[in-house]
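Justification of resources, computational component.

The compute hours requested in this renewal are based largely on the per-chain cost of generating structure records like the one below. Each record pairs the submitted sequence with a full structure-token output. That output is archived, and it is also reused by downstream analysis tasks.
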Amino acid sequence: MQRMSLAGFLMLALVSASASAKCPTRLPCPVNPLVVRLHAEGAQIYDCKADASGNLAWKFREPSPR
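The structure output for this chain reads:
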């Protein structure tokens, strides 16, 4: 028989409880109402380069409109 940690047991209990709970199709959000909806197209281009300490990091290069 496999032993289960307390954290594993609690996670299993939470998943079981949430699976049996009914979720509403739309969640109310009275605190942060939608103010504006915008549409944009394009891409942001990043390069993977070494920083001063030699670690690789993503660096922004340029935006690219379509």
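Residues 46 and 60 are 4 Å apart (CA to CA). Helices lie at 6-20.
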